[in-house]
Amino acid sequence: MSINIKSILEDVGKGAASLIMSKSTDPSYKTIIKEKKNDVTRRIDWEVEDYLIDSLRKHDVPAVILTEERDLVKISSDPSYLFVVDPLDGSLNFVMDIPFYSVSIGVAKYSGDPRMSDLIAGIIIDVQRDAYYYAEKGKGIFVKGNTVKPLGEALDKPIASIYMEPSISMDMFSKIKKIYELLGTFKVRTLGSSSLEATLASFGRFLLFMDIRNKLRIFDIAAAYVIAKELGAYIINPLNGSLDDLGILKQPHINILVTQSKKVMDTVIAAFKE
Question: What are the entry keywords (predicted)?
Fold first, then answer.
């Protein structure tokens, strides 16, 4: 069964964003309802995920949905697609009233053991900006409501988004320092929504986006992966190579580098290999 993926993702993604905005001033949606080993679930996460599942079911999509809170949800007896859903990427920003968070949905062809390379479409909704980025494999990218052209000479130094733990080893820290020196220095920002930051790096707004905490999951990067690929950006694990063969259903924890520049990618890889 063939479906209009773009139309469906636009509809359910924008609906989810509207729901988030409507609850942004309600303190009850910021409460923690479930605690996990390295994360928490808030009421907003649970209810937006509910909305996405129900919306995809109403669209009669022949799919299985991989969700952050409920794991696999089957909404068809004969699925053709796998939807990978992050209902709110940047939930702490939502709680803190920091206007930078997103809805992220990736789509792969359904199979018994789907890989990252099987992802065929993705949408990331920038909730507060009322903007979104949509990409479909082999068909390019569509942007609505935001300009993401590189800033060029408007910046005195390029900007990198780098996530690492305070407990980072001195050896790893020295490698980060070497990257900083080899790339001619840059400013560092971490904004709290990996899908949006990876997308900004894919467009060249950031020199690079890198997370070496080994904490990101498939939900965080599925849509951003498709966008990066369609833009010709590099999206890899900087410590051990390609992400293409990662099993989606295995839900591995991931280190990631996203950049438009081959020089940046080669510099980062070389520094970590030393």
Answer: Magnesium, Metal-binding
Where exactly are the structural domains of the chain?
Answer: 5-144, 152-273
Class in CATH terms, 5-144 = alpha beta
Q: Give residue 226's identity as a one-letter amino acid code.
A: V
Is 88 marked within a binding site?
yes
Report the distance separating Cα 171 and Cα 226, nearest Å: 33
89 contacts 209 by C-beta, under 8 angstroms = no
- What mean pLDDT do residues 104-111 have? 95
Share of residues in the chain with pLDDT > 90 (%): 78
User: Is 89 labelled a binding residue?
Assistant: yes
CATH number of 152-273: 3.40.190.80
Q: Given a cut of 80, is residue 148 above it in pLDDT? A: no
- How far apart CA 42 and CA 101 sit, in angstroms, is 14
Contact 80, 110 (CB under 8 A): yes
Burial 83-92 (b: 16+ CB within 10 A, else e): bbbbbbbbbe
Q: Which long-range contacts (CB under 8 A, 24 or more apart) does 150-153 make?
A: 150/203, 150/204, 150/205, 151/205
